[in-house]
Design a protein that fits this description.
alpha+beta, about 10% strand, about 60% helix
């Protein structure tokens, strides 16, 4: 094999490696963009405010009115971060445009799941679900149904 052929083979290998790396990076960027979206989503902020209210009040917010009052009185930075001006706006999913479902007085079964709030419908067969520990999980309809909420 002469130097020209060896150089061409090397170039092909480098180009193929670049293509493979690019494909891998693009698929990862989709997952990382989803993770970034979930980190700043209204649902994540609502879960954080719910946990904060629970600590401050000494109990979970009893109903939507108590939670909204808490958000409006204590959540100005959260509202600003979310780009909204009121608890009413914060409690609407930016993905499906529907009010978030918040479990104010969960049954023992609901409490066992650790779920605080979730999207009413979600998008493309997936809905975001917010948990007591602050994590947000994107679930298929089947996965969500298994929670029994």
């Amino acid at each position: 094999m002469n130097r020209v052929e060896f150089g061409r083979i090397g170039l092909v290998v480098v180009l193929l490696a670049g293509c493979v790396a690019n494909i891998g990076c693009n698929s990862g960027s989709s997952a990382s963009s989803q993770a970034r979206r979930q980190q700043t989503s209204r649902l994540r902020l609502v879960v954080g405010m719910f946990v904060s209210a629970q600590r401050t009040l000494g109990h979970p917010p009893r109903d939507e009115a108590e939670f909204k009052q808490y958000i409006n009185q204590n959540g100005s930075r959260v509202l600003e971060h979310a780009g909204v001006s009121s608890a009413d706006e914060l409690l609407v999913s930016e993905r499906d445009g529907k009010p978030l479902v918040v479990l104010y007085q969960p049954t023992p079964q609901q409490k066992a799941t650790g779920v605080i709030a979730y999207e009413a419908e979600g998008v493309d067969g997936r809905r975001d679900v917010g948990f007591q520990l602050g994590n947000i999980q994107s679930m298929t309809d089947a996965e969500f149904a298994e929670l029994g909420l």
